[in-house]
Amino acid sequence: GRRAYAPPAERKRFYQNVSISQGEGGFEINLDHRKLKTPQAKLFTVPSEALAIAVATEWDSQKDTIKFYTMHLTTLCNTALDNPTQRNKTQLIRAAVKFLETDTVCYRVEEPPALAELQKNEWDPVVTWAEKRYNVTIGSSTSILGPNIPASTKETFVSHLASYNMWALQGIEFVITQLKSLILSMSLIDRHITVEKAVLLSRLEEEYQIRRWGNVEWAHDYDLCELRARTAAGTLFVHLCSESSTVKHKLLQD
Q1: If pLDDT is split at 50, 70 and 90, which confidence band does 223 have?
Q2: Are 162 and 93 in contact (CB under 8 A)?
Q3: Rounded to whole angstroms, how far apart are CA atoms 168 and 238?
Q4: Which residues of 14-48 are buried (b: 16+ CB within 10 A; e: fewer)?
Q5: Which terminus of the chain is more solvent-facing, meaning fewer CB atoms within 10 Å of its CB: N or C?
Q6: Considering only CA atoms, which of 160, 1, 176 is closest in space to residue 85?
Q7: What quaternary structure, including any partners, is listed in this protein's UniProt entry (predicted)?
């Protein structure tokens, strides 16, 4: 999957105060008296006041150095504004739905029996929920070729995703690439499961192996926290880009 892109990893903090203001094209981020720009030098303008506040909070929380790799909402906004891959709405939707063909929760093992049972117990309820929620057939398979997803199921998801705007679709694809699953991503975005649950289900086999064989603790914990952070940011981004109401207070609160 395509990743959102970002500027260099770190830079010395060059501003004191962060605020937001409303411009002609939406809400802007101000670093002292400078307006934030995208990597392609476009004015950084977001459609939602709540999203602007969330992005401003990312910038305000930076200390002596700006750690761009921690600023997932800013990165997603840059991707939505610059659209570096130059894809339209139809292409974004098709890319998201294509993940159904290799969806994590659709690929099952037969051995070892304990892992096969774990997959059934943990993944089947999510697949069943998705089938009922979207009135589709998904299923699962132990074949290396994966399940045979009906064309009607793919078209249903295409129609559903078409109800989201371009910004939200960028966030949906970002979440899907983190979880390697359209089904888990839509379950999360539809608030059926939590970020922690979605991440756990996406890493089910890895977590099983860790419980069995142990792990390098710091590396596992770091990877887990990073995946949770990216998944949470992507989900929040989708919700804020789909939000119709606005937040009353434009300025950051102390």
Answers
A1: confident
A2: yes
A3: 4
A4: eeeebbbeeeeeebbbbbeeeebebeeeeebbbbb
A5: C
A6: 1
A7: Interacts with ATP5F1B; involved in the assembly of the F1 component of the mitochondrial ATP synthase (ATPase). Interacts with FMC1.
CA gap 10, 188 in Å, rounded: 31
- Torsion, Cα of 30, 18, 52, 82 (10° steps): 50
Half-sphere exposure of 160 toward its Cβ, with a 13 Å CA cutoff?
Answer: 19
Contact 198, 231 (CB under 8 A): yes
Residues 77 and 176 in one domain: no
CATH of the domain at 164: 1.10.3580.10
What is the spatial distance between Cα 174 and Cα 3, in angstroms, rounded to a whole number?
Answer: 7
Helix (H) / strand (E) containing 28: strand 26-31
pTM: 0.88
Domain that holds residue 28: 18-82
In a domain, 30, yes or no: yes
Rg value, the chain, Cα: 20
Max CA separation in the chain (angstroms): 62
Mean pLDDT score, 166-189: 97
Give the whole-angstrom CA distance, residue 216 versus residue 228. 18
